[in-house]
Amino acid sequence: MQDLKTIAGQFALKGAAGTIKPLGEGFINDTYLICLEGESEPSYILQRKNHIVFPDVPSMMDNIKRVTEHIKTKVSDPLRGTLTVIPARDGKLYYKDGDGNYWAVCLFIKGSRSYDRADTPELAYQGGLGLGCFHKQVSDFKEPLSETIKGFHNIRWRFQQWDEAIERDAAGRVAGLSEEIGWIESRRSNMMAFWEKFENGIIPTRVTHNDTKISNFLFDAADGSLLCAIDLDTMMSSTMLNDTGDALRSYTNTGAEDDKDLDKVGMSMDMFKAYMKGYLSVMKDELSPVEMEYLAFSGLYITYEQVLRFLMDYIDGDTYYKTKYPEHNLVRTHAQYKLLTSMEARLDEMNAFIKSL
User: Fold this and answer.
1) pTM of the prediction?
2) Where are the beta strands (DSSP E) in the chain?
3) Over the stretch 336-352, which tens digit does the pLDDT of each residue have?
4) Comparing C-alpha atoms, which of 217, 238, 237, 233 is closest to residue 61?
């Protein structure tokens, strides 16, 4: 791989790259902070985009550029209210090195801070506010976006993969999983009925973020106010209910995603209420009646999908998710199923709270 300074030099920076240091753990992309020569504070963020996870990086970067340019027309400070993509010197939105790696650069938003996780209702509110503001900013963006990850949150596609995995029985585990397979099959028609409403246009298509954890929102370090959504690689055209469902799955879980102690796992109504207050403080007049109707259900939908995916990977012999021990994916399946049943038991309560707002 080329030297990082050489790679950084391929982009239209306002000066020569000085110090370049890693940022974060890099589960998907490798991320670095760039300080210009003679400066100690970072000015840019350099990322090696994972072209295995995102097979069409040029289209992904085009998505990000078009949407962020749209958001810039909606915010008071265009350099802090959304990401700013820095093009390569040849005008492209990325640089491809000699090893086939794709690189991209964006402006570092100074005076910002983020949170690793939301563990209080106050932070859940902020996360809901962040997603609500993002959804409102892009609510009138009508151009189609490229699909950066095939079939993401598409339950029809997931069922096709599921049926093939059951038929394959690659790890010889199907015979011992009749109860868990029953969890999936007993809810199949209900989940498909929801997805068909999106396929048929009853649920509208919008710009979706698709990775709505609180660490993907920046806040002002001085006054705590919301700045913008970041990590837009997974942004696509889909239903905004994918975003709210993903958020509810992660924000409201009282246990860990792979908790072995199922007594710890359940849905927190306090976190749900705080998140929805934040989200609907911005979006309550923007959503269609059918989107409002399925807002609480979206948490069940995404959690169900995750139960299916963990169990499918266990059946396939643990080929997709990284595991720490042989039963890890099965433990994840049981923990997510406990969360799902907790959500199902409180669906009426969730819906009543949303109506009260």
Assistant:
1) 0.93
2) 17-22, 30-36, 44-49, 85-86, 95-96, 102-107, 112-113, 206-208, 217-220, 226-229, 236-238
3) 999 999 999 999 999 99
4) 233
